[in-house]
Amino acid sequence: MSGSREKYLELLRKLPFQAIADTPTVRYYTDWKEYEARLDSEYADEPDEVAEFLRDLRSEANVVLDVDVSITGLPKGVAAERIEDYVDGEGLKPFTLIEVANKMTAYHAYRWREGVKITVEEGADFGRIVLFSGSGRDGYVGHHILLDVGEGAKGEIVFVDYAGESGGLKTLLAEIRVNPKAEVNLVTLVHHGKNKPVYALRAVEVLAQASVESLFFAAGGKMTRFQDDNLINGRLARFEMKASNVARPATKSDIILSTLHKGPESEGVVKARGIVIGDGYLAQRGAAVLYDEASLAASEVESYVTLLSEKGKGYAVPVLEIHTGEITRAGHSAAVASLGEEFTFYLKTRGLSEDEITGLLIEGVASFSGVAEKLAIPFTELIK
Q: How many domains does the chain contain in total?
């Protein structure tokens, strides 16, 4: 353990999991006890087995992180190197875009061991990069990803956050910078097993005249907290996301999808759809924040959650903060709805069974983001 990490040990001891309650009525949307119980986990020695439906995607991956790091077959104009500690030099470094502000970020900062820094050359038409973050069998893994997309570069990034069915703990922090005039399609698949809590925090910085089209799918596990902070910092920067979040039975997910504007005339849109199956739990949250610098910016956030059972719990929580006197537009909307008897009865009169009705609703939400189609994975595999 290097000396540069010792400062984070002190923060780990001092910082809380969360400084304040989420709302007056909901103390925490994240069940922090699941993480607290596993902070003493030993490092995993072996990787988790990967679910069969993801093995082809893992084989295709240019960068794989589990208990080790492998790099292979990078597209032209893309370079990658393993990082095991805090690095010097130019460009992105760990905790450039992310602040160590709570116990789990301090824990990660102190303990992460597998990391990678990926750099895309200016103007590169890089096609497709696949990043696969796996997990360790019955132990702790901490992954840190840095990705710097050069000015004017174009291409697709597939970002997979996977946790297998063994126990243990995983932390994943990713910092992505999309430099001016770059164009990125970001496809994210989060799929976690039912025995391993995962804490993930990703920051995506979008600079002047750059654009990011983001497709996002999450099926959480034992306790999944995935926070996606999209920092729209450049003039005329653009970010648009479509998200599908599925809470399967006996799983808990807190998914936070935000656009944070500092760029003048920037634009951010988040449209999220969620569904809770059986006794699953889903908090689908998002903030659109327009800071003082973001004059004439535009931002929208939508969050809709459907409950398929009285046993399930779902929250749709949008937040809109405007700190500038000049905006182009800003709005938010949210709703949590149950599968009502009248609606079910109407569809049954049209010849559909209850299982068919439920299946159609799940398919509609799971397909909303477009991730399953983009990755050619049947949605039924994603919700198993």
A: 1
